[in-house]
Amino acid sequence: MEFDYINDELKLDEDTYYYYCCAGLGDTMITLSIREELEKKFGKKIFFILKKTHTVVAKMYEEKNCFVLKDREMQDIVEKNLYKKPEGGKIYAAHPAFHEELRDFFRPICDQYSTERFVPWFYEFFGLSGLEGIKEPTYYPPMTQALKEKISKFDSVDNIVMLSPEATSMLPMSNRFWEGLTEELKGKGYTVVSNVIRKERTVNGSIYIDLTAEEAVILGLNCKAVYSVRSGLCDLIFSKGKDLHVYYPTHSSYFIYSLNSMFMRTDIDEVILIER
Fold first, then answer.
1. SS3 state of residue 232
2. Helix (H) or strand (E) holding 59
3. How is the beta sheet containing 207-208 ordered, strand by strand?
4. What is the pLDDT of residue 8?
5. Is 259:234 a contact under the CB 8 Å cutoff?
6. 96-119: per-residue pLDDT in tens?
7. Distance between CA 260 and CA 195 in Å, rounded?
8. Contact between residue 34 and residue 123 where contact means Cβ atoms under 8 Å apart
């Protein structure tokens, strides 16, 4: 799937609404899943502006109505040209965090004391009502030769367990927890790999593999199991079901972000883990 990259300037059509997917992978997933509803609401074509690392979401929804920012410089240009409301020919940030006037609306979710679950709250931000759950992707990227070569030196994919200990909106679990889990899984004969942003953050005892966002999704969908703090990656691999083990650091974070609730499932293994 090919994408149009924004390289040096913004050329915007006044008959099109542009939504800048400015937050995490999970937020982008929800935003792309409601394009049809947004087009019905405004009676106009909807285009999405994506960060380069989020193209995997567009592939999974087979979404062609999008531009991709080539680099950080173009991202800065877009963020300096945001509009306060959706309007033809304007760029609107598709998350309350980018709207100062919505600070009070955003704070309960940000600080995780909300009495609302995330999905209906997010739909409310878009001015949509009556929607339930999240529309599932229509395509899942297959294993690539490049990824096969990365992991083949360690083990077969069906014996690999992936740890994903990082998230932007969750309190982290302790190193002690992840190291203990690693030893337990290795004791059962599995090869344990870490999906982390920087190599130095690799969980002790596990193996570091340098993965793109798309490769993390592919490996997550194909490996034996995934153990992750609640993150946007979890949204993209929710279909793994019982082999997806998700940790929440508080009761409120579980209430707000429960994957089983979002995707109307019961098989994902969700654990509230409050460390002392």
1. helix
2. helix 55-60
3. 207-208, 191-194, 160-164, 225-229, 244-248, 269-272
4. 62
5. yes
6. 999 999 999 999 999 999 999 999
7. 23
8. yes
Mean pLDDT computed over 123-131: 93
Which residues on neighbouring strands pair with residue 271, listed in sequence order? Answer: 247
| Domain boundaries defined on the chain | 4-125, 145-272
Tally of CB atoms within 10 A around 71: 11
Residue 71's pLDDT is 80
**DSSP label at 136?**
P
By DSSP bridging, strand 4-6 and strand 82-83 are unpaired
Question: Are the C-beta atoms of residues 163 and 206 closer than 8 Å to each other?
Answer: yes
Cα gap 87→197, rounded to integer Å = 36
Q: What is the CATH number of domain 4-125?
A: 3.40.50
| Residue 242 tokens, joined | 């019982």
Could you give the percent of the chain with pLDDT greater than 90? 87
Closest Cα to residue 170, out of 93, 85, 259? 259
Confidence of residue 6 (pLDDT cuts 50, 70, 90): low
pTM as predicted: 0.94
Q: How many helices (H) and strands (E) does the chain have?
A: 12, 12
**Gap between the Cα atoms of 47 and 13, Å rounded:** 10
Nearby residues of 208 by Cβ (< 8 Å), 6 or more positions away? 193, 194, 196, 199, 202
In DSSP notation, 154-187 reads T--GGGEEEEE---SSSPPPPHHHHHHHHHHHHH
Q: What's domain 145-272's architecture? A: 3-Layer(aba) Sandwich (3.40)
Whether 145-272 and 4-125 are alike in CATH topology: the answer is: yes
